[in-house]
Amino acid sequence: MTGRTTLRVLLAAGGTGGHLFPAEALAGELLSRGTSVELATDSRGRGFSGGLAKIPVHRISAGGIAGKGLVHRWMNVCRLFWGFQQALWLVTRTRPDCVVGFGGYASLPTVLAAQCLGRPTILHEQNAVMGRANRFLMNRARLVALAFNETRHAEKVEISRRRHVGNPVRASVIAVGTRAYVAPDSGSQFHLFVMGGSQGARAFANLVPEAIKAMAEPLRARLMIAQQCRAEDLQETSTIYRSMGIEAELKPFFDDVSRRLEKAHLVISRAGASSVAELAAAARPAILVPLPGSIDDHQVANANAFERAGGGWVIAQAEGAARLSEKLSQLMASPEMLARAANLAMSAGRTDAAARLADAVSELSPTKAIAKSLEILV
After folding, report:
1. How many other CB atoms sit within 10 Å of the CB of residue 312?
2. Does 370 score more than 50 pLDDT?
3. Which residues touch 16 (CB under 8 Å, ≥6 apart)?
4. C-alpha to C-alpha distance for 76 and 63, rounded to whole angstroms
5. Which residue, 332, 338, 324, is CA-closest to 213?
6. Which CATH number does 175-348 carry?
7. Contact, 99 vs 111, CB < 8 A?
8. Backbone angles phi, psi at 16, to 5 degrees
9. Which residue among 157, 212, 347, 358 has its CA within the 20 to 30 Å range from the CA of 332?
10. Of 50, 49, 18, which is closest to residue 275 (Cα–Cα)?
11. In angstroms, rounded to a whole number, what is the distance separating the alpha carbons of residues 219 and 235?
12. Strands, sheet with 190-195, edge to edge from the N-terminal-most edge strand
């Protein structure tokens, strides 16, 4: 690091939106500060946008172990071991001042390699339950940054090494929350946005149309639906909506989520960390349907935190279409409930999370370390 003043940061994140979106937000913030940023991810990482599209990307072998059969576990242990060897070379060659891991098995080889080589590491935990990879790595991390003030298992880290920063959210989504939510008038069009990962799309393709079918006709006639839907379910789901006379736009992936959120009067979503953070930042009321059987039930914890803040309502998938239909009907008839939830939703997250996490990273810069040493001497 001698003779170098530019901070070098290596981000480690898996190829799913839940890990990449906060990494993207942090990358954008760091780049705006003149920081050199690179990304280590697994083979799933594709189609990067925002800050991630502007930085070097390194592929590291990885594989999940939890919930797998014996053969798959062994194969993925081998992938993780090979990824660790790759990461050792990457960290040695790039010499980052800090490695920031965003959890998940794909971050493990890179963060562990950095810790073994004596490089400072920061872990960011997006969920209300600390993930297993972060729990494995947290004892040697310089800092554990938390999205939720109350995070299960975080209490095992001394308070001096943990900090509540929130979950970094893309700037385009934050911009939605700066504009006032307008509740729909009784009888006017009602925009419903249904979003979720691949597993959410699979379940919602059946659950949501069944719930809407059970609603009273005057309510159904008001609906304008945008719904994430797997390619193999598009035709069948579209046919169901047409049979009810409902205008629905169905896509496997929406690349304009911020625009959809801005139009939405209500969102139905899984309760992944990034989804909850974006709903909070955009100040949009939501019905959250946690993914059943998610590891350590982290989606239930995320959803309950959002509900406690007043931003939405939690419905278990097992409660079925009847319960969802009942809640939808109640909310469409109660614009004041929607407006109140929209006002409270933002308190479930932090719009300055990317800046706060970037501040934590910057504290590890060589110049900051020298400045702190001089302060101690004085």
Report:
1. 29
2. no
3. 44, 104, 197
4. 5
5. 324
6. 3.40.50.2000
7. yes
8. -100, 155
9. 347
10. 18
11. 24
12. 247-251, 223-228, 190-195, 266-269, 286-288, 312-314
Give per-residue pLDDT as tens, 7-33: 999 999 986 777 888 999 999 999 999
Residue range(s) of every CATH 3.40.50.2000 domain in the chain: 8-169+351-377, 175-348
Supply angle C-alpha 226, 269, 11, rounded to 5: 105
Q: What tokens appear for 76 in the block?
A: 């993925």
Q: How many CB atoms lie within 10 A of CB 368?
A: 13
Could you give the angle at which helices 335-345 and 298-309 cross, rounded to 10 degrees? Answer: 110
DSSP-derived secondary structure for 290-320: PPTT-GGGHHHHHHHHHHHHTSEEE--GGGH
Q: CA–CA separation, 121 vs 99, rounded Å?
A: 5
Q: In what order do the strands lie in the sheet with 121-125?
A: 57-59, 36-41, 8-12, 98-101, 121-125, 143-146, 162-164
Name 369's Cβ contacts closer than 8 Å, sequence gap at least 6.
none
Question: Residue 199: pLDDT band by 50, 70, 90 thresholds?
Answer: low
pLDDT tens figures, 74-93:
777 888 899 999 999 999 99
Residue 285 and residue 342 in contact, taking contact as beta carbons nearer than 8 Å: yes
**What does DSSP assign to residue 215?**
S
pTM of the model: 0.85
Amino acid in position 200: G
**Residues in contact with 235: Cβ distance below 8 Å, sequence separation at least 6, in sequence order:** none
Question: 167: closest CA among 309, 274, 14?
Answer: 274
Give φ, ψ of 14 to 5 degrees: -75, 175
Length of the chain: 378
Q: Token pair of 210, please?
A: 């069944």
Question: 290 with 299: CB under 8 angstroms?
Answer: yes
Structure-token match 């009810």, residue found: 244
151 burial level (CB within 10 Å; 0-12, 13-18, 19+):
buried
Residue 114 burial (10 A CB sphere; 0-12, 13-18, 19+): buried
